[in-house]
Amino acid sequence: MSRAIKPDRLPALVYAVVVYLLFLAVLGYAVGFFGGFGVPKGIDQGPRTVVPAAAAIDLLLLSLFAVQHTVMARPWFKHRWTRFMPAPAERTTFVLTATLVLALLFWLWRPIGGTVWNLSGPGAGALWAVYAAGWALAISSTFLISHFDLFGLRQAWLYARRIRYSPPPFTERGLYRRIRHPLMAGFVVIFWSAPTMTAGHLLFAVAATGYILVGIAFEEHDLTQSLGGTYGAYRARVPALIPRLSLRRRSLGVQRSQ
User: Fold this and answer.
1) Residue 63 — very low, low, confident or very high, per pLDDT cuts 50/70/90?
2) Which of 64, 108, 168, 222 is the most exposed place for a label (fewest CB within 10 A)?
3) Distance CA 78, CA 83 (A)
């Protein structure tokens, strides 16, 4: 069977590529937004609003992102959604919707003043290093599973070549041997690694971290349903976000001889 791209299926591939490029642009903006550099409007910049109204707007934007992510990622929603659109475009549409909601959050976010902590010198430098490490952790973890499947490109590529899609197999390698959700762990690090933590940034960090914990619970329920005992054993063996320290213990005989 020919594996060349079929012209009638090319639009699905173009759609996936365009959405992916849009996602990369918004992701790049996110680096500057949370860090407060290199973008027109960071998490602590923008029009000021009285605190109750600003907090309400910010929480509403965070809730919109949480609902979109939680609902569209559920198997029951995917099953119903693919009745109205080709299955290969389902993941791409999820990525597009998440990207647009995130861009909306950046646009409408209202800063809230008040400094929780403010580090300078070596302390600030250390937090910036942790901030960069958080991004490295989050991005690298996507390549340990299937980066292009996660963002819908693999589905569209296989569809365009008339190759039947099968999801990536469950694997346990690299960071996934130490923690179950390195992508989410990276984002938690990003949200909290601020040399200057304002009240608005703290609101975001607390709410987003809370959502991550809830999102993990939903995701793991779905994984347990689909993978059964395989994921149950993995879950029992590997912590969710914080790796266990593996300390080498000396033998009992050596300890007694000291």
Assistant:
1) very high
2) 168
3) 9
